[in-house]
Write a structure and sequence with these properties.
The chain is α/β, with parallel strands linked by helices. About 45% of the residues lie in helices and about 15% in strands. The protein contains 10 helices and 8 strands. A 6-stranded parallel sheet has the order 5-4-1-6-7-8, with helices on both faces. Strands 2-3 form a two-stranded antiparallel ribbon. Helix 9 links the parallel strand 6 and strand 7. The longest helix is centred in the N-terminal third of the chain and has 19 residues. It starts with a strand and ends with a helix.
């Protein structure tokens, strides 16, 4: 195994505190804009989001801000509230260990270009040898193209690389489909199905997997 690649959201960090901060602003703006209750505004906004789940647009908050003609910009929100990005406590120790062990590290995300800004603000960007967003390849996971682009950039074959992510449909299926080893990080202990090569609850468990690999 030469390279370990990661998803971002729900895998190495969570943006949930930031989402919880701006969603009430969204509902308030929509309520005033359309003359509806905040509950109705919430229903409309979340309805659009859930209705587009796992599509190309679903991964971009700015798409939904534009859809409702809201004067909000996700990059500006990230810059204003970087402390609302919560890096999981197992992330940095794991990345440090992987680097010390000589692994190439990468990120594959279905999110747009602002994912790089997110990593930078979270203090994680410099750990990675390559970061591939949907904007780099005009594709999202599980499309093979986005995985193969990252692997080519790192100069490794699929069989020499591992993908770690929290989504069975995007990270695990996509990685397996191109011949990578797939690790499902299941932080919440959800019921899944046996598609991943490995299932872990914390990133610390990668040491056990990769130690055994040698």
């Amino acid at each position: 195994m030469k390279a370990v690649l990661f998803d971002i959201d729900g895998t190495i960090l969570t943006e949930m505190p930031l989402i919880q901060l701006f969603l009430p602003q969204v509902y308030d703006k929509l309520s005033k804009k359309f003359g509806i209750s905040k509950d109705e505004a919430r229903e409309q906004f979340l309805g659009e989001i859930f209705g587009r789940r796992d599509t190309y647009d679903w991964h971009d908050w700015n798409f939904f801000f534009r859809l409702f003609d809201l004067d909000l910009n996700y990059e500006e929100l990230l810059e204003a509230y970087p402390h609302k990005l919560h890096v999981y406590p197992d992330t940095v120790p794991t990345l440090e260990w992987l680097r010390e062990e000589g692994y190439l590290l990468g990120v594959i995300t279905s999110g747009p270009e602002y994912q790089r800004l997110k990593l930078k603000l979270a203090g994680l960007l410099d750990y990675f040898d390559v970061v591939v967003t949907r904007d780099d390849v005009n594709a999202i996971k599980p499309e093979p193209k986005i995985f193969l682009y990252a692997l080519e950039d790192l100069g490794v074959e699929p069989g020499e690389a591992m993908m770690v992510g929290d989504s069975l449909s995007q990270d695990v299926y996509g990685a397996k489909n191109v011949g990578m080893t797939a690790v499902w990080i299941n932080r919440e202990g959800e019921k899944g199905y046996n598609m991943a090569d490995y299932e872990i609850r914390t990133l610390h468990e990668l040491r056990k997997i990769l130690g055994g690999w040698e």
